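[Meeting: bench + compute handoff]

Bench side (C.D.) handed over the final construct sequence. Compute side (W.E.) agreed to return the predicted structure before the next meeting so the bench team could plan truncations. Sequence as handed over:
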Amino acid sequence: MKMKQILIIALATFTLGSCLKSSSPAFQAVANIIFFQEIAVVDEVTSVSYVPLVQVWGNEAITTCSFTHSSLENFNLSRITDTYWRSTNPASKRTDAIPSGSFTVAATNANNVTVSSVITITTEQEGMSEKLNGELSYTPTTRDLSAKFHAVAGATGYGICLMQGEYFLADEIEVYTAAQLEAANWTITITLPAEIDNYANEYDLATYAVKVGDVPIVQLGQRVTVSK
């Protein structure tokens, strides 16, 4: 399997992206934001919330980076690598609805060249109308990963992803359409490739459903921990 960042693959299943440009074409950056939808049912009462994750990539080292919204408090971004920044503590920006308005991104390189852009959400976006349930299990002796999905109203796709922390989707493992899963009776089994162990000695895998629209909305399902 060719490991690749799930949020910057060519088809950009999850990406609400913006190319940051300046008068210095040598320095460019790309930013995106996705919203994790969380549905909780307590005593037959359903609550819905959204956690935004912001990411910025540069084609060279980024020294400072900012991401602001017209009505939300500013997002704190942390440097993960020289060329990749993402929001710190995404859960602190939890909201009951996905806000419309303008998201402004700015990144600066070592030569003090700043690139910036604005991502605008014109209308309030609706998430999926039900919780993603199902099953996920892993058999270490065979490296088989078995997942059982179910149809989620409003979802435009499903898959299995490699997780880093609670909200960061580090890589995609498999991507499915509803038609593909329906043909498989919503149950699939895959064998994990050996090269995935290069990621870490221990990592999490999770099922997900995604709704792609003006804003990509991701709902995580079941999760398992895999060790070398």
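W.E. noted at the follow-up: The chain has a mean pLDDT of 81. C.D. will use this when planning the next construct.
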